[in-house]
Structures are given as C-alpha cells and as structure tokens.
Design goal:
The structure is a single chain. The protein is mainly α and 423 residues long. 87% of the residues lie in helices and 0% in strands. Helix 2 packs parallel to helix 8, helix 4 packs antiparallel against helix 5 and helix 4 packs parallel to helix 7. The two termini are 37 Å apart. The relative contact order is 0.12.
C-alpha cells in the first residue's frame, strides 16, 4: 500500500489524475459526436469527414511549419531565462500567424480543387472550404498558443483550455450536424477546435502583454529542424492516409472507408491517455534531460507505469467490442467488430513506439526521425495497397497491425544499439 501511495505522489500520476477529467470529458463528447455522425451521415459521410480531418492535419503542420513540438521544447528550455523566453515567444507569435493567413487564402482560393480531391467533387461542398478558410487562422493560432502554454508546464491551464474547447466544440458540432447533416459535420471539423483560441488567450495574458513584433533568426533556425520532422509525420502521414482511403473507396466502396474511419475514431479516444500525457509530461522533461540515467528513468516510468494500464484498456475494449461499437455508432457499423482486433494490435505497437519516437523531437535528432518515419509511412502505404488488393478492408487492417509492429522493433533496435545522446 505504501508503494502505491508513493507512485501516486509522483508528478506523472498527479498530472494523469488531473488529465483524467479532460480525457473523460473527451470520451463523453466523442461518444456524442460519433453517435450523432453515425445516425445522421452514416459510414459514407464519415469517410468524407475522415478525408477532411487528415487534410487539415497536413495544413496545420504546413502553416505552423511543424514547429509545435519545437515550441514546447524551447519554451521549456528557456524557463530559467525569462527575457530570452519572451523573445522566443515573440518570434513565434510574429511569424506563424502570418503563415496561417496565407494557408487560409490558399484553401479558400482553390476550394473547387480541394473539393474534387477530398469530397468526391460534389459541388454542394465547395462552400465548405470557404468556411474552413475563415475558421483556420483561429484554429492554427490556438494550436501555437497551446504549445507555448504546454512548454511553460502549466498543466492545469492546458487541461482547462482543452475542456473549454471540447464543450464549445461539442455544442457547435451538434448544432451544425442536426441542421445540415454531412455539410455541417464537415464545417465542424475545423470550426469546433478554433473556439479553443479564446480560452488559451485568457491563460497566456502575461506572455501576450509582453508581446512585441520581432523575429529572431536564431529562433526560426532552431525550430527549422522540427519542420522536417513534422513534414514527414504530420504532413506526409495524413496524405498517405488520404491516398489509402481513396484506394479503399475505389476497391471496396464508401462504407468500407467509413468502417476504417470509425476504427480510427475509437483508436483516437483511447490514445488520448498516452498522447496527452506524453505532450504534457514526457516531452518537456525529455527536452531538459542532461544524463543517460535521467532518460532511462523517464522511459521506465512510461513502459512500467503507463503501458500496462494502456494494455489492460485495449484488452477490455476487445472483450466488450460489440457494446463499444453499438455505443459509439449504429448497427450499420457492425462489420467494425471483426476488424477491431487488428486495430488494437497495431495500436499496441504504436503505443510502445510512441515514447521512443518522441525522443527524436526532444533531442532534435532530425535524420533518425526522418528515416524511421518515412520508412514507416512507406511500409504502411505499400502493405495497405497489397492488403486492400487481396482482402479489402480486412487486408488493410492486417497491414496496419504489421506496420506498427515493425515500427516498434525498428525504434527499439535504434535505441538499444544507437549512440547515446550527450547533453
């Protein structure tokens, strides 16, 4: 009992317990949203929403130059240098909003092209991209501001902004879907998270009050290493998923693509447990590591404390898969039950690899990250093409599981036999 109390007193579990409120709320809002989309737009509409979500992930990282993890790292690194930290924040808040506006113009100006590529060319959806263009700057700036808040290690404030964004986004999504079905669901993809901007500005009043228009070239130079890493993972990655989804639509139809999107949504809900804790707790600490012993201690807390809990959760989801799918979706999504095992196996490998991949961000190991990420994406693409050709959506899910198993083994070998990082 004393041992359990000592573990609970660690910062990791204090943050986890606080974050559990945000995760719980995310699950509730996710359940409502998923059920709403399943009832009102079905598998085919969900496939279109998935394409737009992947596209916006790429746009987010193009507009922010993939700086978000770098912003967390350097904001945390300058904690003992308030003046230098404010200068860094000034550089970020001068440069990136301009890029957000340029991306917004590009989306609105080429609406028909994006519609033809992502939404099957239905002319009724052209105007969706004008609304996306209006909401995008607010959304992108909120992403940047949240990264700054995260780098300041203001965990409670990060969680509070997430809670506000989820509640406001849920209200907007429900209203749009109930009134305009698929059309409203597409607009809500970007409009809902944009509302988080107002909460994060409230918590960054001090930093914003000290803001001046200035760009330090050294800041952009340091952050540029993260651009290459983000282009590989968060720009090329979603484009690969769009290509796979379009191939699946051609081969097996819109409904099959909707089943895959449903699996991705279920996955995103339980991955909140790992991804948010890595962003809140592990990345800022890895960024300040100075010895190999410190790094090992951080990795041990991940593999021996977090992963067992995550694994038990995956097993529970599989055992109760019929109820999970019924809860979040409708009877039209029953084929998801037979696909879920492969998704869970892939996500176990992905979860094991996640912290090892974040080491590359923390230590700015650009070349290693690019090699492993591009290898994984290429592997996923070609395995998926083969899987779809031979077994349709079942083959795709087997390819997903195999790919992330290979990815974890690769990262584990690089960690075991790679050269230690001396800070």
């Amino acid at each position: 009992m004393a041992g359990l109390r000592s573990i609970w007193k660690e910062d990791l579990w204090k943050i986890a317990s606080l974050n559990s409120l945000s995760i719980g709320l995310k699950l509730v809002t996710g359940f409502i949203t998923s059920k709403l989309l399943a009832v009102y737009i079905g598998p085919a509409g969900l496939a279109l929403v998935g394409n737009l979500r992947n596209f916006l992930t790429s746009v987010e990282n193009i507009a922010t130059f993939g700086f978000t993890n770098g912003i967390v790292k350097y904001t945390a690194s300058y904690q003992d240098q308030p003046k230098r930290q404010q200068e860094f924040i000034n550089s970020v808040l001068t440069f990136l909003p301009i890029m957000a506006l340029l991306c917004s113009l590009g989306i609105g100006g080429f609406a028909s092209y994006w519609n033809a590529w992502l939404l099957e060319g239905d002319s009724a959806y052209n105007s969706v991209f004008f609304y996306v263009a209006l909401a995008l700057p607010w959304y992108l700036v909120s992403v940047v501001l949240t990264s700054i808040l995260n780098g300041l290690e203001a965990y409670k404030k990060v969680v509070y902004t997430q809670i506000f964004g989820m509640l406001a986004g849920l209200a907007l999504t429900v209203g749009l879907v109930l009134t305009t079905q698929t059309y409203g669901a597409l607009i809500a993809v970007v409009a809902a998270p944009a509302l988080q901007f107002f909460a994060v500005v409230f918590y960054l009043k001090k930093q914003i009050q000290g803001f001046r228009f200035q760009i330090h070239n050294s800041d952009l130079q340091n952050l540029s290493h993260y651009s290459l890493m983000a282009i590989a993972s968060s720009v090329i990655g979603p484009l690969v998923f769009i290509a796979i989804r379009n191939r699946l639509i051609l081969s097996s139809g819109m409904d099959a693509a909707g089943y895959w999107e449903a699996l991705s949504r279920i996955s995103s809900y339980y991955f909140l447990f790992l991804s948010t804790l890595i962003g809140l707790y592990f990345l800022p600490r890895l960024a300040k590591v100075t010895t190999i012993a410190e790094e090992k201690s951080i990795l041990k807390s991940y593999f021996y404390q977090l992963m067992p809990v995550f694994t038990v959760g995956l097993i529970g989801i599989y055992l109760f898969r019929v109820w999970v799918v019924r809860l979040f979706f409708t009877s039209a999504f029953e084929p998801v039950n037979d696909l879920l095992l492969w998704q869970l196996l892939g996500d176990f490998g992905k979860g094991m690899a996640l912290i090892l991949g974040y080491r590359f961000f923390a230590y700015r190991q650009t070349q290693l990250f690019l090699f492993t990420e591009l290898f994984s994406l290429a592997s996923l693409y070609f395995l998926a093409q083969y899987g779809i050709q031979t077994e349709g959506v079942v083959g795709l899910m087997k390819a997903y599981a195999l790919n992330y198993g290979i990815y974890f083994v690769l990262l584990a070998l690089l960690y075991r036999f790679g050269k230690p990082v001396h800070r």
